[in-house]
Specification:
This protein is of the alpha/beta class. The protein is about 30% helix and about 25% strand. It contains 18 helices and 24 strands. The strands form six sheets. Strands 2-1-10-9-11-12-13-14-15 form a nine-stranded mixed beta sheet. A four-stranded parallel beta sheet has the order 4-3-5-6, with helices on both faces. Strands 16-17-18-19 form a four-stranded antiparallel beta sheet. It is globular.
Length: about 525
């Protein structure tokens, strides 16, 4: 809140948020008359201030949880800033959670308030909330009603000064004050809620500013889910709270996003590789149809959440987007390692070097650091790294060393002689075929080089002889002729044989139009496995 207050007295009239609803077409966005909901920094501060006052009137106390669940919206960001005035804990939840899993998470975090879009009402009713007292349930429209009157006619600086006077002295969000709980994959018995302090998130953003080299004057598109660390803290809350411009999409649509990049002169965006493949395709289709595309301002394309390939890197570099490949986890406030375009040639599949304010190392099974070139489990520590999973002592004991702060990530990788990090997959994704360890990400990277392959993913499926075999899921290149024979398993094996061991060769193949994805846009492991059942 303090950052937003200061920003509102520097640039009160600067555009703060533009909200583009799901279903709005690229053609509509391109029209000069298109006017989506838009707020300047002073109007944003006034809304966040009134929301903080509302939280206080509802009895939200320091450390209590405020859940936000629904499509991407300004309320995700307003809630985070308003909660800091308590200071309470923001809990952004995946809108696609099934009711049973959502019920377990709500029971686990015991929210004081649940803010939702109307599409979540029925699901929340099915959750059987039994806390006493029950959490207050409010919708986005309820908040619009309670945050009136409109600020449209008030001079921005006048509005900003009035908003600042509305709140008493704001609390200090010290080093150990929790700011957010981000839920990631976990067992049904133990939801995995990563607790991030305001300090953790601030240091994560400091890492981003130093590597991505952006400022509060940057215009950013927000297309990744705001329930995911890459959408929530991956530069978004930083730019927003410091008075920058964020264009919030309820849902990713490649054509609409491309139109917004052109119209609003977007400079930066975080997205997973699949989203960028769609954007590259949109640019090509527009060019082929004779429509010029201007993305000249878009020069900070942040890529993460899943492995990419050399072809996508080359396509993005060719468009002048200056991609930065990122490895970041919720537990690190999304700041693990980054590879910038300037040092990408020849090491496109690496994820770069550690962010400035984080330590990374690879360790063996006994937890001892290993030499460059040797694959091990990655560990990290630093001020952006969590020290606690919310209400989960078992997981804390298993993954976090309380004395040294090293966190076991579950990712496997190695550092090359120049200190660049290369990922080979998750510990849980390692395939054991006939006693040989196979790293799925390495196999997928080789298959992706086949000229007929647009995208490839690899999983291990049960086999009575070998225990597990390597199974490949492949998307063929879009320009494959319609009358061409489908890519065969034998063709893939012949292509990969010079680069892979016998155990690494795929033994099963499924051709698909799209890689199955989860709600965060990442490859869905269970969806991949289901293709072979």
């Amino acid at each position: 809140m303090k950052f937003l207050q200061a920003a509102a007295l520097r640039h009160p009239g600067r555009t703060s948020m533009i909200w583009i609803a799901q279903g709005i077409s690229a053609e509509t966005i391109a029209e000069p008359s298109f006017a989506p909901p838009t707020w300047n920094v002073a109007q944003t501060l006034a809304r966040a201030t009134r929301l903080a006052a509302q939280f206080r009137s509802w009895g939200v106390a320091p450390g209590e949880r405020v859940v936000v669940i629904g499509k991407n919206s300004p309320w995700h960001l307003l809630t985070f800033v308003a909660a800091a005035a308590i200071p309470a804990i923001t809990v952004p939840l995946d809108q696609n959670l099934p009711a049973p899993e959502l019920a377990k998470i709500l029971t686990h975090c015991e929210p004081k308030i649940i803010i939702c879009d109307p599409t979540q009402h029925e699901k929340l009713a099915d959750c059987g909330l039994t806390a006493n007292p029950r959490p207050r349930l409010v919708t986005y429209s309820d908040l619009e009603d309670c945050l009136e009157p409109s600020d449209d006619s008030t001079p921005p600086v006048t509005l900003a000064l009035a908003a600042i006077k509305m709140l008493d002295e704001l609390p200090e969000c010290g080093d150990d004050v929790p700011g957010a709980i981000i839920y990631t994959s976990g067992t049904s018995a133990h939801p995995k809620g990563t607790l991030l302090t305001y300090k953790n998130m601030w240091w994560g953003c400091t890492n981003f500013r130093e590597v991505f080299e952006y400022s509060a004057a940057t215009v950013e598109a927000v297309t990744a889910p705001l329930s995911h660390i890459g959408g929530f803290n991956g530069t978004t809350t930083d730019i927003f709270s410091h008075g920058g411009t964020v264009i919030i999409f309820e849902k990713f649509d490649a054509a609409a996003v491309l139109a917004a990049i052109e119209k609003y002169r977007v400079q930066m965006m975080f997205a997973v590789p699949t989203m960028y493949r769609m954007l590259v395709r949109e640019v090509r289709q527009a060019t082929q149809s004779g429509r010029p595309v201007d993305t000249s301002r878009f020069t900070k394309a942040l890529v993460g959440g899943a492995p990419w390939d050399e072809q996508l890197a080359a396509d993005m570099i060719g468009l002048g987007w200056n991609p930065i490949n990122i490895w970041g986890m919720t537990e690190q406030s999304a700041s693990g390692a980054a590879l910038t375009t300037d040092v990408m040639a020849g090491r496109e599949l690496a994820v770069g070097r550690a962010f400035p304010h984080i330590e990374l190392r690879a360790v063996d099974g006994a937890g001892k650091p290993i030499e460059p070139g040797v694959i091990g489990q990655l560990e990290c520590r630093g001020p952006s790294v969590t020290r606690e999973y919310f209400r989960n002592r078992e997981l804390n004991a298993a993954l976090i060393d309380p004395q040294t702060g090293w966190l076991r990530t579950g990712d496997l990788g190695f550092f090359d002689a120049d200190g660049f990090l290369h990922l080979v997959g998750r510990l849980t994704d390692t395939i054991n075929s006939g006693g040989e360890k196979v790293f799925s990400q390495r196999v997928a990277a080789v298959l992706s080089r086949h000229p007929g392959v647009s995208e490839a993913r690899v999983v291990g499926v049960p086999d009575p002889t070998w225990g597990e075999i390597v199974a490949a899921v492949v998307v063929q290149t879009p320009d494959t002729p319609e009358n061409a024979e489908p890519l065969s398993l034998e063709q893939l094996q012949d292509f990969a044989r010079p680069h892979l061991t016998k155990a690494e060769l795929p033994r099963a193949l499924r051709l698909v139009n799209h890689i199955p994805l989860n709600s965060n846009g990442k490859p869905d492991r269970q969806g991949l496995l289901a293709l072979f059942q």
